[in-house]
Amino acid sequence: MNNNIIIMEHPLIKHKISLLRDKRTGTNEFRQIVEEIAMLEGYEALSDLPLEDVEIDTPIETCITPMISGRKIAIVPILRAGLGMVPGILSLCPTAKVGHIGMYRDETTHEPVPYYCKLPRPIEERTIILLDPMLATGGSAVDAVNQIKKLGGKNIKFMCIIAAPEGLEKLSTAHPDVQIYVGNLDRELNSDAYICPGLGDAGDRIFGTK
Ligand code: PRP
Ligand code: URA
């Protein structure tokens, strides 16, 4: 498998994904758990942030101690469902800027239909954390990365909660340079391009729509 694919093994993530799968989990709890999983995955995805030594005066003495260096972070949710993951990542890096990419899947073709894109500048200098809880056919994620690269983005990490093998293959083939963080790799897509067993429609469950 591509070295840039990281499947989460942490029991807390596995447990929380099972709670999301349960159709009895209501909107409020669903939102909360999506946020928590994003934070746990973000902890892993940001583990290569560069550090630099700075001088700090403690109450005891002056010391040289590491802090995250100036690299700028852009969090970019794919609308709508990616929005649910933003607070979890912001809780780790509250000064990050947030861009948005809007798209939805055409119900018949399952192809992404883009409708919005606004990214923080300068995007080429930022570590970009692209968020979408669901990687199904992979069409939306591939198109979102295409848009980011076209605007100059280079250092891109994609984070999802559940992936189908089909989507993971498509994204990693189209963009082998993108690091892909997956909460759980599910079995397959069904004929409507929904992930099985999955959790249903993530956007509808986060926002309480149908
Ligand atoms: C869902 C999901 C992804 C996309 C994944 O969004 O949040 O963006 O489908 O499917 P793909 O990998 O086959 O492209 P949806 O199109 O339902 O839009 P929404 O978030 O606005 O509900
Ligand atoms: N989008 C979702 O929200 N769920 C799926 O299973 C597939 C695409």
Model description:
The strands form three sheets. Strands 1, 4, 5, 6, 7, 8, 9, 10 and 11 form a nine-stranded mixed sheet that branches. 31% of the residues lie in helices and 32% in strands. It is of the alpha/beta class and 210 residues long. The chain has a single domain, classed as Rossmann fold (3-Layer(aba) Sandwich), CATH 3.40.50.2020. It has six helices and 13 strands. α1 runs antiparallel to α2 and α2 crosses α3. The structure holds 1-O-pyrophosphono-5-O-phosphono-alpha-D-ribofuranose and uracil (URA). Uracil binds next to α6.
Question: In short, what is this structure?
Answer:
The protein is α/β, with parallel strands linked by helices. It is built from 6 helices and 13 strands. Uracil is lined by residues 81, 134, 136, 194-195, 198, 201-203.
- What is the end-to-end distance? 36 Å
- What are the segments in which pLDDT stays under 50 over at least 5 consecutive residues? none
**Shape annotation:** globular
What is the CA-atom radius of gyration, in angstroms?
18 Å
Q: How much helicity do the residues have?
A: 25-40%
Count of beta strands = 13
Encode the helix/strand succession as letters. EHHEEEHEEEEEHEHEEEH
Tell me, rounded to a whole number, the average pLDDT.
Answer: 96
Listed once per kind, the bound small molecules are: 1-O-pyrophosphono-5-O-phosphono-alpha-D-ribofuranose, uracil
- Any guess at the CATH architecture? 3-Layer(aba) Sandwich
The domain count comes to 1
